[in-house]
Amino acid sequence: MTSGASGWDDPAPTRGVAPLTRPRRLAPGARVAVVAPSGPVPEERLEAGLDVLRGWDLDPVVGPHVLSTHSELSYLAGSDRERAADLQAAWCDPSVSAVFCARGGYGVQRMVDQLDWDAMRAAGPKVFVGYSDITALHEAFATRLGLVTLYGPMTAAADFIKNARAQDHLRATLFTPESVRTISAGRTLMPGRAAGVTLGGCLCLLAADLGTPYARPGARGGLLCLEDIGEEDYRLDRMLTQLLRSGWLDGVAGVLLGSWEECGPYDGVRAVFADRLGELGVPVVEESGFGHCDGALTVPLGVPAVLDAGPDGAELRLEVPALR
Q: What radius of gyration do the chain's Cα atoms show?
């Protein structure tokens, strides 16, 4: 890879999912921005999360509308224009090294079209962190900026505030990414070994993104990371079937399954995965410890990795650190 004056890598063209540009790791004293692209943020949880970041010797600044609520739609943190403006201003601020999402919920799909992607690319690569509804932004950052992003804990999320494992894994990824090249990958559902580039996020958001200008054409050659919350087994079946029927899963190299909180008895959920993903003929690993769960691990998206799924367990090994 080569790196231009802007700091962007220029990966060689490849069919399918390609490695993306890795932002620089954070250093003590780095200025980071916290924004709310989706739902409204409880002030006390935001303050608790900011205290964690300050404890890491980071200098967090908060977007102007993070504590706002839409005048009519209470599930949104301010208007679409306001949420987009906060994200774009943070990203384009040359003093900011990373942008953290305060929480998920719902709302990214409503604001993503209002971002100036040319201006954001001109601002150069930076660290971006979030999960859940933020999946739609992970996809947009991949397709519009070609940028590695971190599917990890959000600043005002309850798990991040209270859980040392979630904090420690994100902190290591941000400051010493070479120390977390191996990510615990749970139990083998379908055995095998596969190499590819990580991608994915929340299943319902990936399904909803199909056909939009920000959806990648497919997961060919990728290691697909999936998780979700509050979706019954038949709904998970429907979304996986949509990805299968659309051809989006054609050629996927392997699948890493995270948490499925509030999705019903796990035996039923597992049966859906075995039925829908088993026909792909690729390694599938379950209970991998990322997403909507206690102590959620941070998974970089856009990094080449190897998924080993054997009878005694499984792991995901990154071929390069998540950040430069």
A: 18
Q: What is the dihedral of CA 57, 155, 38, 291, to 10 degrees?
A: 130
Reply yes or no on whether the pLDDT at 220 is more than 70: yes
pLDDT at residue 313, rounded to an integer: 85
- Tokens standing for residue 27: 């250093």
**Active-site residue identified among 65, 70, 138, 292:** 292
What CA–CA distance (Å, rounded) separates 282 from 288?
A: 16
Which is nearest to 99 in space by CA: 159, 49, 149? 149
CB 44 within 8 A of CB 51: no
Query: Does residue 15 carry a pLDDT above 80?
Result: no
CA distance 185 to 224: 13
Q: Is 132 a catalytic residue?
A: yes
The active-site residue, picked from 82, 139, 227, 231, is: 227
CB 22 within 8 Å of CB 324: yes
Please tell me which residue in 132, 169, 231, 288 is annotated as part of the active site. 132
| Residue among 221, 223, 213 at smallest CA distance from 283 | 223
pLDDT band of residue 1 (cuts 50, 70, 90) is: very low
Q: Does the annotation count 169 as an active-site position?
A: no
